[in-house]
Structures are given as C-alpha cells and as structure tokens.
Amino acid sequence: MSRDNNVFLKLRFRIVYHSAVLLLLLTILGCGDNRVENLLLRANQEWVQGRNHSAIELFNAVLEIAPSGPRAEESLYRLGEIYYFGLGETTKAISYFQEVVNMRPRGEFSYGAQKYIAEIVELNFRDLDQAIIEYQKLINEYKRPEEHPEQQFRIAAIYFKKHNYEQALVEFDILVESYPKNPWSEEAYLRMTEILHNMERCKDSKEKYSQFRVLYPKSTFSGEMEFVMASCLEEEGKLKLAYNRFKSLEGDYKYPALLKMKLEGIEGRIKKGGKTKRKIPRRYRRKS
User: Fold this and answer.
1) Is 177 inside a domain boundary?
2) Quick count: other Cβ atoms within 10 Å of Cβ 137?
3) Of 107, 275, 49, whose CA–CA distance to 99 is shortest?
4) Does residue 46 lie in a domain region?
5) Of 17, 38, 133, 228, which is most buried with the most CB atoms under 10 A?
6) How far apart are CA 16 and CA 28, in angstroms?
C-alpha cells in the first residue's frame, strides 16, 4: 500500500473515530439543553484535570450544538485558556479570546478575554504600541473601576519599556491623581522618583518623594525611595550626607550588593576629596 493511501486511511480513521466518540457522548449525555450543559461540565472537568486535547474536543462539540450564547462564550474562552496556558499556542489563543469579545462585548467572559489579549500582545507578541491600545480598552470600555489602576500602571510601564520616559511620567501622574491611596499608585510614586532621578531632575524627584512620604508613611517601598534620595545627595556633591543616608539602609535594603557598591564608591570619593565619582549601574531597568 502506498504512503499516500496510508495517510488517507489514518485521516479517515481519525474522522470516523472522533465522530463516533462525539455521537456516543451525545447519546450518553442526553438531549437538548441538558446535553449541552453536561458536555460543558465534562469539558471543564477534562480541562481542570489537564487533559487538554479531550477538553478541546468537548468544547468544540459544545460549539457545534450551541454556536452562540453564554455556553458558546464560555467554550471559546476555555479554548483560549487551554491554548494559552496548556499548549502555549498564543496565536490560536488570542483568536479565541477575540471571538469572545466580538461575540458579546459586555458578556460575562469578555473582560477576562480582553485582559488576556492585552497580556499576550505585550508579553508574547511584544507589540508595545498595540498593547497600550488593548490596555486602554480595558479602562474605556468596561465598568471595572476597581481594576483600572492596574491597567493604567501597565500603560505607564509600557511607555517606560519604550524609553519614552516623559510619557511614562505623564501616565504615572494620571494614575496617582485619579486613584490616590491605591497600591498601584504607591508603586507609581517609586517609579516616578526613580525616573526623575535618572533624568537628572533631582529637585522634581524630591518633590515626588515628599508627596509619597505623606501618603504612604509605612510603605514597603520606603527603603528604595530612601536609596534614590541618597543618590540625589551624592550627585549634588553632599557626600557625607549621602553616605549616612545609604548607611542607614544597611540590613533593610533589598539590593545589598548595590548598597555596598554605593558606600564603597562614596568612601573612595571622600578620601580623594570628592573629585571623582565611581560609576554605579543605574537602577533604570525595573521590569513591569
């Protein structure tokens, strides 16, 4: 038998086999709405247990019987999750999520699908301009104000990734002004303080630090903020003040190796009369 005939027979067998399995399932699971509900339940069970391919078949079976409506939305959403998390096929995943959004833009699964779209576009496709658009949709098109601070933070962080620091500052400012006393705003102050310091705008950096201290006196970011302020003192030539401020962070600062480099560098400058400055890698590479 030729190779082509073998391939044809195998393909035919698969089609017949899967059709028979589907027919058997439909017979076992009943008819009408109950049949769809039972199929959906079984599909979700297969997905939770990690049997991705059998779950895909069952969700597709649901779509054959109910191509629209809430059950179809859930099936498309789950298929997107399976291809994204279970199989790592992001192109297929995003197509399913987009179907969910298009089918019913205000449906139960639409917001979650749009979040996945934004995440995939940013982290997997690395299309930062489109990612900004997708995150902005989450703010503009969905009534989820409790989640808007995170989306605004993501937008600002993407501008930072694009090295558009001025626009990043604008977006972080929108965040802190629109959502005061929010955990995302708390971190936004740290980001702005760091950016301004690295843009050699220590006066503005100190202003953000002062606002931060008033709003978040017990913040977990206090040590990092103090590090930035000590760095400003160092760059202003106030070496003893900078040294003491850095020294006060020992035991509490999350990057001890960097702190040690700073202290050693300032000690060396003081011994040489403050005329040289040891170059320290800038902490201008924080990830979103």
Assistant:
1) yes
2) 18
3) 107
4) no
5) 228
6) 18
The alpha carbon dihedral of 220, 283, 165, 161 has a sign of: negative
Residue 118 lies inside a defined structural domain of this protein: no
Which of 214, 216, 217, 244 has the alpha carbon at shortest distance from 229? 244
Tell me the residue range of the domain where 228 lies.
Answer: 172-288
Give the integer Cα–Cα distance in Å for 156 and 173: 9
Q: How many domains does the chain have?
A: 1
Query: What are the two backbone dihedrals, phi and then psi, of residue 91, each rounded to the nearest 5 degrees?
Result: -65, -45
The structure tokens listed for 277 are 């400055």
Cα(124)–Cα(126) distance, integer angstroms? 5
pTM: 0.83
Only one residue has tokens 């850095």, namely: 246
Sign of torsion over alpha carbons 89, 91, 94, 96:
negative
**pLDDT tens, the chain, 288 aa long:** 454 444 444 444 444 444 444 544 544 445 456 889 999 999 999 999 999 999 999 999 999 999 999 999 999 999 999 999 999 999 999 999 999 999 999 999 999 999 999 999 999 999 999 999 999 999 999 999 999 999 999 999 999 999 999 999 999 999 999 999 999 999 999 999 999 999 999 999 999 999 999 999 999 999 999 999 999 999 999 999 999 999 999 998 999 999 999 999 999 999 998 654 444 445 444 554
- Cα–Cα dist 118/132, whole Å: 8
